[in-house]
Amino acid sequence: MLLSTSLVKRISTKEFTAPENQRFVVHDSRGFEAGDSENFAIAKDFIKRRRNMPLQDKIHAVWLCIPIPLANAALFEDGIEEFINLRKEILGDIPIIVVFTKYDTLVNDLELEARMSGEHDETALEARKVDKLDELCIQPLKEVAGSDILHTTVSTEEEYESTIRQLINLTTTSVEKFVASEAALAMMIAQGADIGLKVKASILIGKKRYWRGLAASVNFKGFTMSDCLSVIHKDIIDVWNFTDPHCHLASDQFKGLILKDLDKADELMPKDPDMTFLIYRNSEFGLATITAILTLLAGAFPPIVAGVALVEWIHDTYQHTKIVLQRIMTYIVDLTCVMQILFLLAPPGPISRHIIKIATKAYEGACKNEVHLAIQSYCVSAIRRGEGDALETIVRMIEDHSIKADEVRGLRTQMGGAVDSKADEEW
Question: Which stretches are transmembrane (predicted)?
Answer without folding.
Answer: 285-308, 328-346
